[in-house]
Design a protein that fits this description.
41% of the residues lie in helices and 20% in strands. It is built from 4 helices and 6 strands; from the N terminus they run H-H-H-H-E-E-E-E-E-E. The protein has 2 domains: 6-78, Arc Repressor Mutant, subunit A, CATH 1.10.10; 94-164, Nucleic acid-binding proteins (OB fold (Dihydrolipoamide Acetyltransferase, E2P), Beta Barrel). The longest helix has 44 residues, at 47-90.
Length: 170
């Protein structure tokens, strides 16, 4: 059995109707690895109460972890949908790469999945940006310079002045 951290215990024990003594004894079992009967005796509660409390806490853990997995699945499906939409728009052979730390990308924002991702065309490839990693949310169809620092800070987003653009006028 993997022991929990104090922070995990605090999260999983929220919104329970367990008494302070039951919670303290349960913490001894789940965080410190104490035997249930010893923790029950120490806190002057019955061992079956500790067993029931641990079951309640493990159920809370399962619910919270399922919610986290659900959010992760939604993010992944939003990413897949946006990449597919970009390929439908620009051709199935479009190469889409995820933005990387320490890199700089210049080009227009062509698609967005509100709250999750956006796609920027940078020539023959497209770059998938996570909106949460940008200092501000850019508008669509605006030519941008997006610079990711190497230290993990938010990416700097700035408009590219058309005068400094390297595009060839036709």
């Amino acid at each position: 059995m993997k022991l929990w951290t104090d922070q995990e215990f605090d999260v999983y024990s929220q919104n329970t109707r367990l008494s302070d003594n039951i919670l303290a004894a349960s913490r001894e079992v789940l965080v410190l690895g104490e035997v249930g009967s010893v923790a029950a005796e120490k806190y002057k509660v019955w061992a079956p109460q500790i067993s029931r409390a641990i079951k309640v806490l493990r159920n809370n853990q399962s619910k919270i972890l399922a919610d986290v997995e659900s959010v992760s699945n939604v993010r992944e499906s939003k990413k897949v949908e946006l990449v597919q939409e970009a390929r439908n728009l620009f051709g199935m052979d479009l190469v889409v790469k995820s933005a990387k730390s320490g890199e700089n990308y210049v080009g227009p924002v062509v698609l967005e999945s509100p709250g999750y991702f956006m796609i920027q065309r940078t020539g023959r490839i497209a770059i998938l940006h996570e909106l949460g990693k940008l200092e501000k949310i850019p508008a669509l169809n605006v030519r941008l310079d997006i610079s990711y620092p190497g230290n993990g800070d938010l990416a700097k987003v700035s408009e590219v002045n058309p005068e400094h653009s390297r595009e060839i006028e036709r």
